[in-house]
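Before we proceed, please read the two lines closing this message. Report back on whether the structure tokens fit the sequence:
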Amino acid sequence: MNDQDPTIDTLLHESRSFPPPPEFAAAAHANDPAIYDQADADWEGWWERWASRLQWDQPWQQVLDWQAPYAKWFVGGKLNASVQCLDRHVDAGHGNRVAYYWEGESGDKRTLTYADMLAEVCHTANALKELGVQRGDRVTLYMPMVPELAISVLACTRIGAIFSVVFAGFSATSLQDRIQDQEAKLVICADACSRRGKCLDLKAVVDEAVANCPTIEKVLVWHRGAGVASASPVSDREVAWEDLVPRQKDQCPPASMDAEDPLFILYTSGTTGKPKGIVHTTGGYLTGALATSKLVFDLKPAQDVYWCTADIGWITGHSYIVFGPMANGVTQVMYEGAPDYPAPDRFWSLVDDYKVSVFYTAPTAIRAFMKWGDEHPEAHDLSSLRLLGTVGEPINPEAWMWYRNKIGHDLCPIVDTWWQTETGGIMISPLPGITATVPGSAMHTFPGVEARLLDQEGKEVEGAGGGYLVLTRPWPSMLRGLWRDPERYEETYWSRFPGKYFAGDGAKRDEHGNLWVLGRVDDVMNVSGHRLSTMEIESALVAHEAVAEAAVIGVAHDLKGQAPVGFVILRGGFEATPELAQTLRQHVATEIGGLARPEAVHFTPELPKTRSGKIMRRLLRDVAEGKALGDLTTLADPGVLTGLKQEYESA
């Protein structure tokens, strides 16, 4: 621990909890613990009440039809997703409320109100119809974080087309695979994006991908780049956004969609072989996004400026940049660019400039902020913040406390959220007006959600203990299947524990009933017959004052079966030496026990991460075992692996 900050050390070792500030709790949407019992007593009724807050064209006849593993929610009901995000706020007199403050890396800015967004969505929806897109057609989106991406998403929903966002960083092969799998009719793309001051050619990727996609009839290109080699049309399939969209009408009647009509297909990151397309439908997904956004982030449209730093290319961006916040009518910040460009204080500068009050980011980003230094947030006024959130992977207690101290100034509740692409929305999280939070724990299931821990035989783990994390009742925003692959859906999520949803995460429950998500089961190793979580060992390493970030894997061991190996990024001022490696190994043994002592600790300037910030431990295992590295599609910087291999092989 840092000797200059003994408070963190004391708090972590005491496992102290942090109740919400009284003034926060008094004004929170959820501040009565009875909400949990009420939701459990009638969980179908709980979700039905949330669904009734949406604007329906036709009421449902049945709340839930559950034929495991297939659910239908709000059967017979009809609605339109874009209406929930736009029309109903404009019709209520809030058209002048800002929907998005957008800023690019170079400082260019735009402000769009809810009325602006509605007009732009109608323009784009009419343009899609002119291009021949009809209800049920698939449209693939390949765009950076610009308002036109959110506009295109909502335009698809306006006319009943099924959209599929592919992160604008995936390779042409990955884009092609996804287009072919969904048999898309249209691609909407940008010609370029900005990243760390460079103009990256996106259209060249699209050109290469669609060359082998015969179902694509048109490519709609939004031009924003300068000097991009592939900006010129390569076929008569291309249509320029600026030639088509602005001349369309301001009104576009919304399609009335069945609650169970598919809304979007989103392919899971890191896919190898055949892409795995997660299908989410309209009524249930919107219900889950509305409820979780409002209660977990305590959103107050008239006062909050909310910023989720994810990309719309991931599920976090779908649920908590587009549909959830917009269904709640809140003002958001959208930023295109890197968090450290042109300087490591860029995020805090934006928080200061736009007076962000609710901030939602990834633990990986938080650990990077720690590494870059406290002086960067300290240079800005962050007093507008009232709530902080984390998403993407479990957060280690050290990073949690830094986030609370340095960003929230010990005044902001932290919501540490667990959920997945497949769940569609947050499943486990504190409610900030109720929960006394513990650093590193996601705490409790969201009201109406039921989770259990199971052992290897499928028996429930009662009380304190660890096991496989499963969801035991259906929820509205759950995936409805994999695109045209029901067998794979059943095998992947429902075969391990029949009748229960299991997507591969492990968790533990402490003596107070708090849940600690440990990460993927394949990130749990078996050392001499004892199951150890990589997350626990990583937390122990990061708790040392020398360590900024760590990743742990299990490698084959002749005697132990598996042994932990650590990869560590050091904080400034510390030198990578064999002596420090030994110190860190012993530190883990002291914190957890001798079994957890890493077989080795390797120092590295960077770790292999996806563009969404998740550490790719699979690649670390491949490096350690000398295997071919396989699919690198989602890797943010493939060059990181070269240094890792050299360091590992020379150790």
